[in-house]
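Fold these two proteins, one after the other.
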Amino acid sequence: MEAEYVASRQLLGLSWRLIVAITMACYLIGVVIFSYPMQLGPPEVAFVTRLVLLAVMIPATLLNVLFVLWRPLRRWSDAIWILTMLVNIGGMMFLRILFARNGLDAWSLSQLLTLLFALSIVQMSTPRMLVATLMGISLGTAIEFWAFGFNIRSLLDTSTVSLTACVGVWLMFEFDKLLRVNWYRERYLDQLASTDTLTGLGNRRYFDAMLRQTIRAAARERRNLALMLIDVDHFKSYNDHYGHPAGDQCLERLGRHLGSVMRRPHDFAARLGGEEFGVVWFDPRPEDAADLAEQVLRGVAALGIAAAPGRGTVVTASGGLVQVLAPHPEEATEGIAIELMRRADAALYEAKRSGRNQLFNGGALGAVAEAQPR
């Protein structure tokens, strides 16, 4: 689950990074555009200012957009973001010195604070964010003291910027903790809402959603799908004789068995209610689906759970199997799901009517059902 959180966190960070980079680039482009009707001092100062913006700061900022949008480069996105922000800080401090030496005061340390905040709000990991911010503070402070000397004004200005930037980093750290807690809470609640607490399998809500999702995948990839509904034989008699706690233990063991045999990534099992279960296989060969279903039912009997008196020696289960062969992408998922459940339920009824401990093969949708009990 931690890997899922990290992936979602990285996706959020990339989204924020894209927004911040585009916003900063638009701001810098706006500075260039609006600098023409304004007086930026001597012509050489205006020329150098526009040159630094157009040749250094704006391309460095837009480079982040490339590293976000082009997937092969995303692994380097953090490093490029830090590097370009340091380049922009250096460019901003250069312009600040240029303006100050020409008797102008257009570039203040507030721009440095903006760039430092840009470092902290793009959702890097906390250690990287802290190191990057400290690097930005150190670079800006060193240039400030080198250019203007170590005096009380420079000390107060850089201290204020540094303190404010550190507060921003701390706030982002707290925000990250809040995101993590909320993400895990939502996943935990989703898991509770879709899990049967007795067996550990998915519940009916989970089964319905996963069945439709798997049907869509089968239609998209032109693969087969097999569904079997399972019902524990004579379970009411078992409960009446051994009691409900024993019945719960029986269902729990059956759930563990189903969970253990559904090993492939797209196969799944769920408890639909009471003593009824559903299992789905993704892309089995038509001739193998019945064998897979037989193995599941034989595994139930192999658990060796003593049956109620007069109901055989061990607890068994009956199953109704139905398949859909390479559904067409244009077919309605909901209609396929409803028809699969209807046919599987009818096959299960036939299996139980035929003497229980049976598998009844309801055939495939769109084909003539062979429907022969074993």
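Now the second one:
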Amino acid sequence: MASRGPKSRPGKFKLTHCRIFRPNLATLAATVGDFVAQVTSPQGYALGNGDTLRIDQTKGGALGDLCILMSSPAEFKRAAPARPGGTPPAPEQRFPAALRQELAGRGAQVFNPRGSPLGEVGIVQQLGGLLLESLDDRGIVQATDKTRKRLGTDAQRLLPTWRNAGRAKQRSILGLDAYVKTWQTRGAPTGYRWPTSVPVLELLYGLVHYLPEFHDDPEGQCYLEVFTRQLNAMSGLSGFEGRVVTNPAKPDLSDASIRDLLCDWLAPIANGSVELDEDMIGSFPRDRLSILSIHQSKGLEFPLVLVDIGSDFKRNHPAHAFKRFPDGGGMSHTLEDLIRPLSGFSPPNRDAQRRAFDDLERMFYVAFTRAQQVLVLFGLDGSRPDNGSVRNVAAGWDRSENRHGQNWPVTYL
């Protein structure tokens, strides 16, 4: 992967350490985007010592040989609550979202299916809205008290947004509108009678036929797996087993089958209680830059790994101290202190803060050892290992607040 001069050197290379630090998020994303573009270009990225970092695509290399590791791959910070009578402010962008935009402008894509809450992902809202419209035209069952009590607050807030997204998609694709209206009226083609019981899986895959993102796009495939997995889970608990009942003589029975699907299938996806199954992501697309959590990267290796050690840290704010330089223990350590004596074990012999440091050091050890050939640390200037002011274990700060990162043999890009 690495090269000296224009030609790649064969064989195994010693690990190259680089650093990218910039004063603000936009500049950092632009710099990382430029680095990624150059590394994957035929010319490669020239280092100051004469070496060149390059993914040689003539020898099977691809953008997928690179990986971004972060404590969390979320693309936006959690939005602040709305003021009474007002709308909630737009969520603040994090590095993954900034990099996604940066790479899109260069014709490249990222693979980050866990970047946003499922219920707020655009194509998830479109599919969910089409399902709602097909199953429950005009939201008649959804509006009943029985349904509202089971939906939950978050689902009640998001499902109208889903419906709007579904209606917009319904009008934009040839044939989709007719398909949805057939399900709304439960009207079979001439000469046929609509069955009294139909697996809703038929509706799901019928809609996906019109939505190529769910079978052509790697992130879309992950989202579709959530719908099918949750349907399978709720089918084992519902008396209707994931089927849509259509019986004009027993309208309450028909409504009950729809209510189960709304409350036990779609609502959990909307309110975030169902998440992507990381174990189902067996491989990563070769033509995209994967953004993973450090936890998710255990057991994986990539030729070039970029580890975020400070894109969220502008200063020593106590709100994010647990992510960089703990000032105490977390919830897991509190629970450990409470539960161990109740289980017959002696209390921990190390205080909560030390155990928090242990956990953080282990996490970054995992991150730093995922690279086969090139490791790049990046973040805002405050976390620079040589002179950053933000206390950060990943930047070489020890527990006594001594800074060792200034002695690291690294190349700053």
